[in-house]
Amino acid sequence: MLARETSQLLKKHQIRLDRRKGQNYLVNDHILARIVESAGITTGDVVLEIGAGIGTLTIPLARKASKVLAIEQDKKIARVLSERLRDLQISNVEVLVGDATRIDFPPFNKVVSNLPYQISSPITFKLLNYPFEYAILMYQMEFAQRMVAQPGQSNYSRLSVMMNLCTHTELLFKVPKNAFIPPPKISSAVIRLVPQKNPMVDEFFINTCRALFQHKKKKASKALIQSFHEISDRDMERRDIRHIIHKIDHQLMEERVFKLKGEEILIISAQLKELMEDI
């Protein structure tokens, strides 16, 4: 039913979906129902949806929530969404036309989205700057697996560290390629993300983490020396950088980056920040 309805709407409005823009529309009724159920939306919720498309997810969310903030960048598709909402007499959806990575989000308390894949990373980090209860988000499988990866695993990354320190993230279920039109190249997964405040995760920590993971298979000391420009824009000699790095916890500096726990990177960042302030 959902697949047929979607195809008819796209044909009616002469819309050609573009994979490069992450326009992969969910057409599986069962998966849609699971997402909505996982979201646990109540009549008091204001839900943020990023990449609303023609309203596949927007409409069932609107029937449960107090309000839905539906962001869609494509102006033509946003007009189709607004038209559908009028036809269905749904008045509690605010359609926001724009780039979700650039616009400010109105207040919301939950997020439910089939995210455009090319903005998965910037949107995930942007969301962490806002207060909300939890998010139900669909990502490409590879990205979702990186979000929940643990130290020592091959796909452990800067993203994994940030998710571990700033959220409680759980992979709920997988979504096959044939659940979308057009089918993406790889499968997807639905994630439940609960934000957790961590005051130690500041800009200095983020820069330190970025420097480390540019050389994730090397020892932490070598990674920091080689990517010190990510941490400081001061014009420093390599020997002076080594001198600073050698003052940080020796055991942590000898560990391979991809084996470091988030808490250990916090220690490295805190010690490095203190040393830099003394220069």
Major sheet: size, sense and barrel closure? 7 strands, mixed
Rough outline: elongated
User: What name goes with the CATH superfamily of the largest domain?
Assistant: Vaccinia Virus protein VP39
Helix- and strand-based class? alpha/beta
Main β-sheet, spatial strand arrangement: 4-3-2-5-6-9-7
CATH level 3 topology of the largest domain: Rossmann fold
| CATH architectural group of the largest domain | 3-Layer(aba) Sandwich
Query: How many domains would you count in the coordinates?
Result: 2
Please write the CATH class name of the largest domain. Alpha Beta
Please give the radius of gyration in angstroms. 22 Å
Residue-averaged pLDDT, rounded?
Answer: 93
Order of helices and strands: HEHEHEHEEHEHHEEEHHHHH
Helix content: 25-40%
For the secondary structure, the number of strands is 9
The number of helices is 12
End-to-end gap = 66 Å
The fraction of residues in strands falls at 15-25%
Low-confidence stretches: none
